[in-house]
């Protein structure tokens, strides 16, 4: 159970946590050397590089504040897959995901966090946000400017599978939001647009990083649909390929929720460390790091500094598009709307 808002973390030279399967009897019998405390962050597929850098930043911050050195470990995959791993026993201290429903499931099915977890940190416990954008090939040969251009017959799309990827669900909802803004209440036209768009997808990868690899390394497709942050990072990583970025005028507000896993941190005694790890994401230095990975941030001074890199976009929330996350997720159930649209 959540134990209240933490203050400045105390110095804590904890005895190293005993790994599952290690000899408990032997560990208790021998003098316990002082060991570096560890924290495990369960995160989404495309955030490896971001949290590798953030972990270094936080470890330096924590040592300056407390004198204690810590080791932050990270685990990455599609956030839905990561949530299932925690329900099956992965002892993550914190999660940093790309979809609210993947955090909710930890409360609803696992009773590992309280139902009101989103109220524990500012901005619905989402330290940063993004939206969905397009990456096109050099010279933008297919003239992609907006969602309408994606349904032309000669345009091949690459995106993850909405069944397995939060990244792809955001894309689906962004396209639905655009269709709603264009066609109003005409559900037949909205569904027709979404069906056409899904029909143009050449490869549905299981996760966002796989889709990036398919587009960049395998050279398949005319347009990659993924987070704006990922789209903005790729050209600098592959300057020889001449990729170009297109951010549509209407898209989806993609939040990145974080929380401690109460049941795990209480068992491991890492509550002070885990809470500080997430709270530091809201600091100016962490927000600058997030912005350097092309995420939109909330701290006003930092957002102003980097405003020229993020075009103004009409960002629609899940409530505006689908009513709620629960209703949005019905699209992706077996036999649901996604399946029906792909059969049209």
Describe what you observe in this structure.
The chain has helices spanning 24-29, 48-66, 79-87, 100-108, 122-125, 166-183, 187-199, 208-216, 228-237, 262-268, 271-279, 284-292, 300-305, 318-322, 325-330, 337-343, and strands at 37-43, 70-76, 94-96, 128-130, 132-136, 157-160, 201-205, 223-227, 244-246, 250-252, 254-255, 258-260, 296-297, 314-316. It is an alpha/beta fold and 344 residues long. The strands form four sheets. It has a five-stranded mixed sheet. Strands 2-1-3-12 form a four-stranded mixed sheet, sandwiched between helices. Helix 2 links the parallel strand 1 and strand 2 (70-76). Helix 6 (166-183) packs across helix 7 (187-199). The model is unreliable at 1-33 (pLDDT under 50). Its main location: periplasm. It is found in: Periplasm.
The helix-strand sequence is: HEHEHEHHEEEHHEHEHEEEEHHHEHEHHH
Shape, per Cα inertia axes: globular
Work out the count of structural domains.
2
Residue-averaged pLDDT? 89
Name the helicity range.
Answer: 40-55%
CATH homologous superfamily descriptor of the largest domain: Periplasmic binding protein-like II
**Percent of residues in beta strands:** 15-25%
Distance N to C terminus: 47 Å
Q: How big is the Rg? A: 21 Å
Keywords: Periplasm, Signal, Transport
Protein name: Sulfate transport system substrate-binding protein
Main location: periplasm
Subcellular location: Periplasm
Q: What is this entry, summarized?
A:
With 344 residues, the chain is an alpha/beta fold.
